[in-house]
Amino acid sequence: MPKPLPSGADLQKLHSDTIEFTSAAAAKTLEGFRRLAELNMQTARTSLEESSEQIRALLEARDTETLARMVTGFAMLPPDRFTAWANAIYAIAQETGTDIGALVEQQIEHSNEQLADAVAALARSSPGGTSGAFDFISRTMDAARTSYDQMQAAAAQFTGAAAGGETGKTGGKG
């Protein structure tokens, strides 16, 4: 018995779901880029303001010793500012990645539901004597879903431990 072709409504729903997922992922990505650009613009603005103040101070220097001390001091980038900037970039990237990861997980869950529904529909319309094959397919899908959930949990645990280790490293320095 040949498998029936999907209806126009089915294809339209699939297309609509795909566009919705792609749009959501693009929106999250663009939001991350917007936040990075905003951070970099703020950093550039602050740097320009400081440069103006430093130039004014250099022009007001009255002797070479003061001038040399000021130039040396201005040449050094404060580590706490660089650390704050790097941490802000890391936070934006991590949040954007987490949001996109959640979208992907939702899409995978939705796809798994569709596959289970398709297998169930196929099982209902199958000829007698094939229930063992569909039982095997259902058990295989359940095992694959369980394995995927365990992998996701392990990845989340690893990510949490790595983030905790990084927090502990930087927390000890400050």
Descriptive report:
With 174 residues, this protein is mainly α. The chain is built from 4 helices and no strands. α1 (8-59) packs antiparallel against α3 (79-124).
Features of this protein?
single chain; 174 residues; mainly alpha; 4 helices; disordered C terminus
Précis, in short:
The protein is built from four helices and no strands. It is mostly helical. 0% of the residues are buried.
Rg calculated over all Cα atoms: 29 Å
- Strand elements, count: 0
User: Main β-sheet: number of strands, strand sense, barrel status?
Assistant: none
Helix content: over 70%
- The arrangement of helices and strands along the chain is HHHH
Figure out the total of helices. Answer: 4
pLDDT averaged residue by residue: 81
SSE-based structural type: mainly alpha
> Unreliable runs, pLDDT <50, ≥5 residues?
167-174
Distance between the termini: 70 Å
Strand content: under 5%
Approximate shape: elongated
Write the layout of secondary structure elements.
Layout: H1 8-59, H2 64-75, H3 79-124, H4 131-173
